[in-house]
From TrEMBL:
It comes from Lysinibacillus agricola. Pfam families: DUF4166. Residues 15-198 form the DUF4166 domain. This is DUF4166 domain-containing protein.
């Protein structure tokens, strides 16, 4: 049983069957998919220094675009502690640049949250709360966040947080996974938004 099944418990069975298969993630058996982001929007131009730092750690990036090719690889692995971790590797193929968005996730079964470290090496940490909609889609919302400096983690004031909402589903008619991600700050506005679709591929 991988971290998402552990976290969601019986609710895992309410996910669309394709999402159940996608998030089962047996150890060392990656889920790999390719698709297209119909729209990608970054934030204001004055945030470029922040994006420049973020791109160096395979986190957020300044580019926006439409119909951008995309790939995703999720791999569940066993840490030396025996804990299960899922590595997220997202790649966006802009016409003149390739950008990355990495994350590492583990689960806290007591607090019922996913612990998400964003970037390689990690630049930010966020609690994630998972829920299943009545239609069988997966919705993820961020919680407490921290700025990561090596082994030090500093709490981020709520007004400075990048509030994340992710919705992932499956379109039966078109036989594709659908994804919509929004990262928004209450003071600054949009930090990142992307929406698109993808299909599982052999590696």
């Amino acid at each position: 049983m991988t971290i998402y099944q552990t976290l969601l418990g019986e609710d895992f069975t309410r996910l669309h069957p394709k999402l159940q298969k996608r998030y089962a993630l047996p150890v060392d058996q990656p889920f790999y998919a390719k698709g297209v982001m119909h729209k990608i929007e970054s934030g204001a131009k004055w945030l470029r220094p922040f994006y420049a730092m973020a791109t160096k750690t395979r986190f957020l990036f300044p580019e926006s675009g439409e119909d951008v090719p995309f790939s995703i690889c999720n791999t569940c692995r066993v840490l030396p502690s025996g804990e299960l971790e899922v590595l997220w590797e997202r790649t966006f193929y802009f016409s003149n640049k390739t950008r990355y968005f990495d994350a590492r996730m583990t689960v806290d079964p007591v607090q019922k949250i996913v612990k998400d470290y964003l970037g390689s090496p990690a630049l930010f940490y966020s609690d994630l709360h998972f829920a299943v909609t009545s239609e069988g889609r997966l919705v993820i919302r961020s919680g407490v966040q921290r700025f990561v400096v090596s082994q030090i983690e500093c709490p981020i004031p709520k007004m400075l947080e990048g509030r994340v909402v992710v919705e992932e589903g499956f379109d039966n008619k078109r036989n594709v996974f659908t994804i919509h991600v929004s990262i928004h700050n209450p003071l600054i506005g949009r930090l990142m938004m992307y929406a698109g679709e993808f299909t599982q591929q052999s590696m």
